[in-house]
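seq as requested:
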Amino acid sequence: MCKKSLICFSGFVILMAIFFVAACTLNREGGPARPRLVLLIAIDAFRFDYLTRFANNFCDRGFKRILRRGANFTDAHINHFRTATAPGHSTMLTGASGKVSGIVDNEWYDRELATKVNCVEDRAANLLVARETKSSAGRSPKNLLVTTVGDELKLATNSKAKVIGVSYKDRAAILPGGKMADAAYWYDTATGNFISSTCYMSESPDWVRSFNEAKIPDSYFGKQWRKLLAEEAYELSREDDFPHELDYKGLGVVFPHTMNGGSDNFSMDFYQAFDHTPFADLHLAQFCKAVVENENLGADDVPDLLTVSFSATDRIGHQYGPYSKEQHDQILRLDRIVADLLDYLDSRIGLDNMIVLMTADHGSAPIPEYIAQFGVDAGRIDTSEVPEGEDSVVIPQTVDAALDRALGRADWIEAFVKPNLYLNYSEIDARRLSRRKVEEIGAQALKQLHGIAEVLTRTQLLTGDFLENEITLRMSNQFFPKRSGDLVIVNQPYYLTSAYKHSINKGSDHETCYDYDTHIPFILLGKAFKAGAYHFPVTLNDMAPTLANVLGLAYPSGNQGRVLHECLN
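struct tokens:
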């Protein structure tokens, strides 16, 4: 063989070897080798700017590790207007907003049942507390009308993949996993235990019972939440004692915060107070490790999915606001909790064998009285105490009074579950009035209220008869006719409907489509993704199809997002 032919042949052999190695890294669908575990880290009410404001105090193995090794989308936003826990968590792994998924809010009014319903309420299921089955209404994903990535993973593997969701909130544990999840667990504020529903199993596993018997929350009774670091580390946060923070269940409004629920013994008040501290997230992370160990997640080549939603950032933001020292300390502590969880998973499964997704369901508004100090137009629509079970007094009264003046006295309002106002159809039909006309009168009255930016009627949303802009398009993207109201309301920037926990001018909320409520982290970590910062706009809806694409799955049935090819290896 001549020298030239030998060189050509050698080159051919090398090329074939490269193709062979590459082929060994592909799965049957032709994509990158599948991970053994997909971990979704959802952080309730985690604003994007928490990653930048507090970065100097992060440890190296928590958020910094995720940012360093992941594809970080810096301009990610919620694409629906009502920024709440259920709509956000339902979008993460469905790619669908409320107009498709049916999850328009945490709660809505059910006209057939004539009552307000929880987004994951299921009267055909029962709660599982330890080995006991409670007859009270259970929880399930039945109100979610589309599939998730987890559902598509179960279908593609003939249910060999395991899908489990955990959180302190029921909706945050249930909705990301989907219809076919093996289990969902959440925190019970009556007992301090993790509980589930007969939707998933007939009785709680022995390992869950053993974990609960350790009574981890009880070990914090009477102890104090103190700052993690020295005082100078918190110089970017406002003063500790601010008059519009909420003293919830005896926690107080300044450091240190004593955890006893304002009582001398273990009670629901204590377990609810514990829920509003960083140690709730630590408790959840400990439970996550128990899930991985006892369910053998990531133990074989069939990918499993674990969704983890940390809730304390949301609770603490409601109490103290996003610029408080409490929220600053919470984020620093959560950084260490995430670091420890990743270390554990790295030692057990290997981060190289995983995909890690990190995002949030929404952001958080400043306490309006705080931002108003700087000349910003900010406030609350209801400035007096709102009764338990109600979301507003001013909004339904405004509509009722306007309709009384225009059409005569009657019970015009059936319910108000923010941001949806439901008209009394029986009264309207009995008077042979046009529903459209009644809607328009109510909408015009609400638009005169200072603090309200936009009101769209049911008729407008059904027909598309509205001026399209960023606000109205997001409103339309969350309108589901059977569950949404006759008037849908958006507040002005920095205006809240009312105070937190039915207090008077205390605390903060998240309920709008402005950047402080919509700008969220969106980070994808794993061999399939090119690490780096990506500065173009994306939406939370894009996470589901991108993950499905990498896993070689069909996209969820209601997907509205796009695959982020720009970050794929």
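Confidence is low (pLDDT under 50) at residues 1-30.
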